Amino acid sequence: MKKFVMSYSTGKDSTLSLFRMINKGYIPYGLLVTINKDEEKSWFHDIDRDLLLKVSEELNIDLIEVQCSGNKYEEYFEDKLVQCKRDGVDYCVFGDIDIESHKRWGIDICNKANMEAIFPIWNEDREKLVYEFIDSGFKAVIKKVENKFLGKEFLGKVLTKEVVEEIKKSGADPCGENGEYHTFVFDGSIFKNKVDIIFGDIYVGERTSSISIRSGK
């Protein structure tokens, strides 16, 4: 069996990559998510652990937590890959599109674990990818925005083609690959059921703004 772990952010790009791998016949072994153990949230996207567990349940894919803090992120990530390799997992999948430093990091960390890094959407047209995600039936909300491109009014919006057009008019990349916005995926063809979510407070910072999300059940 061609088993893989998905380096998963809960965002649209990693979800589309997961979707493609499953369609190609690969077997998902787990969702590999780095957790800031001091805050019980995902490291980069600030998704509560309870919500991550709900996503794992609805995708029917185990959550593999990389619990870390401080500057040992890479060390803990590598250790978890080594454990997966011992369990017969040969591939780690990433949702990066065209940022070379991100790809190099993924390849290097996988090499250390004697595992192959796969990038299913690498070097594809950014705009086409976001439309493929939407056309494939996935639903995502905008969780975080970079203030110099998008206002807080985008927070909590479901990502539709109309919203993508609004994002383009702002001057931001339609796919948000440069960090202009981040998404949380809550429904789609590979979900057993929709993940019910409740929005909380909006935080407006100097560089970015975000909206808190928690499980509705």
Automatic annotation (TrEMBL):
A Pfam family (short name) is Diphthami_syn_2
Q: Which InterPro entries did the record assign?
A: Diphthami_syn_dom, Rossmann-like_a/b/a_fold
Domain of life of the native organism? Bacteria
Q: Give coiled-coil spans as residue ranges.
A: none
Q: Which residues does the UniProt record annotate as the domain Diphthamide synthase?
A: 3-214
The protein's matches in NCBIfam families, at most eight in alphabetical order, are given as:
MJ0570_dom
Q: What is this protein called?
A: Conserved domain protein
Q: Which organism is it from?
A: Clostridium bornimense
Supply the source organism's classification. Bacteria, Bacillati, Bacillota, Clostridia, Eubacteriales
